[in-house]
Design a protein that fits this description.
Layout: H1 2-18, E1 21-25, E2 28-29, E3 33-34, E4 37-38, E5 68-79, E6 88-96, E7 109-113, E8 122-130, H2 139-145, E9 148-150, E10 154-156, E11 176-177, H3 184-203
Parallel strand pairs: 4-11
Antiparallel strand pairs: 1-7, 2-3, 5-6, 5-8, 8-9, 8-10
């Protein structure tokens, strides 16, 4: 009996050490957070909530709300203060819901956040893209092959524990829109510019 109790205590301690916080990947939680992802427009990359979102903001968007399985969204995150370049994907990409109320919001997921304990705080970013009929399946592909966009970084505290406390809501998420992928000519010009600068520096 004593051996069994010691084993249970040991397992409990290991579980406590290995526990990771949970977050609700949802940009629409009535009364807490209501944000959307908008399509491309001539305005370039924008972020911030509109007057009808929660919390209310002053931003406006010309692009339509993303809807359906033709678009993907994924949560990226890390420990509090992690730089954007060092964030890691959390969970698989989600598609978007449809309808006047739910359009522009990803299909919700409950996700475990590696490296951040229950009740801890993490830094997060939502990344979204046009998956071109399911052919663009990762963010790495999207940044060079499809319209895409990112939210501003935001912190979420008091992550859930997956048992006694609910996943934390993304209270600090703010809306954003997609931008078109640069044309091949843009990459060529950028490459020529970099090469010219390198030659100039060497001569100098």
């Amino acid at each position: 009996m004593k051996k069994t109790i010691l084993t249970l205590v040991a397992l409990s301690a290991v579980a406590s050490v290995m526990a990771q916080g949970t977050i609700g990947f949802s940009t629409r939680v009535t009364g807490t957070v209501v944000g959307h992802v908008y399509g491309i427009s001539s305005e370039g990359q924008k972020s911030g909530n509109t007057s009808g979102e929660t919390p209310a903001g002053t931003q406006t968007y010309l692009g339509a709300l993303l809807t359906g399985s033709g678009f993907s969204a994924q949560l990226w995150g890390g420990t509090q203060g992690t730089l954007e370049a060092n964030l890691a994907a959390i969970g698989a990409p989600s598609t978007f819901r449809t309808g006047a109320t739910l359009g522009g919001t990803p299909v919700p997921q409950t996700l475990v956040v590696p490296g951040v304990p229950p009740a801890g705080t993490g830094t997060f970013q939502v990344r979204a893209w046009d998956n071109l009929g399911g052919t663009i399946t990762t963010w790495a592909q999207a940044v060079t092959g499809a319209s895409h966009g990112v939210s501003v970084l935001f912190d979420v505290s008091n992550l859930g524990d997956g048992v006694l406390t609910l996943p934390a809501d993304m209270v600090n998420f703010r809306s954003f829109n997609l931008v078109p992928v640069p044309e091949p000519a843009t990459f060529v010009l950028a490459g020529l510019g970099a090469a010219g600068l390198l030659i100039f520096r060497r001569r100098k």
